[in-house]
Amino acid sequence: MTKILLLNGPNLNMLGKREPGIYGETTLKQLEERIAELAREYGAELEACQSNHEGVLIDKLYEANEAGVDGVIFNPGAFTHYSYSLRDCIAGISVPVIEVHISNIHAREPFRHVSVTAVVTAGQIVGLGLKGYELAFAALLEKGRN
């Protein structure tokens, strides 16, 4: 059975409440339920985790690698732009990670244009809203079949 980790970073626990004009009105719980539904449809197993703490995210990535998880859908939030610790963690694991951003980070404030994590991921999806998570899920399933 394919195992996928859905990992969300800081402030994503506030989906649906924080800046709904940018991030939408869907809550994190609703997003996790939608991806879990997709997982069931495809006979995959999904674990979801959100943390506002960098070390917790790093620990989850290492745990996923050790547990033989097949792929990670990861929205690192603001850590995207400056967390070399997350970047080094992703570089040091063998599980493919797809970075997802709800908004188009390249069309926002200049500090958001740089992702220090993207260069060590299997791919990056930006600006497609929550659909980006579904596309990342599909990409990881496809990657697992190759």
How would you characterize the overall build of this protein?
The chain has 146 residues and is α/β, with parallel strands linked by helices. Helix content is 37%, strand content 18%. The chain has 5 helices and 5 strands. The protein has a 5-stranded parallel sheet with strand order 2-1-3-4-5, sandwiched between helices. Strand 3 (71-75), helix 4 (84-91) and strand 4 form a beta-alpha-beta unit. Helix 3 packs parallel to helix 4 (84-91). The two termini are 15 Å apart.
Task: Give short descriptive properties of this protein.
single chain, 146 residues, alpha/beta, 5-stranded parallel beta sheet, 5 helices, globular
Order of adjacent strands in the largest pleated sheet: 2-1-3-4-5
| Principal-axis shape | globular
Radius of gyration: 14 Å
The helix content, as a percent range, equals 25-40%
Please describe the biggest sheet, giving its number of strands, its sense, and whether it closes into a barrel: 5 strands, parallel
One letter per element, helices H and strands E, the order comes to EHHEHEHEEH
The percent range for strand residues is 15-25%
Report mean pLDDT, rounded to a whole number: 93
N/C terminus separation: 15 Å
Classify the secondary structure makeup into a structural class. alpha/beta
Number of strands: 5
What is the count of helical runs?
5
Spans of at least 5 consecutive residues whose pLDDT stays below 50 are none
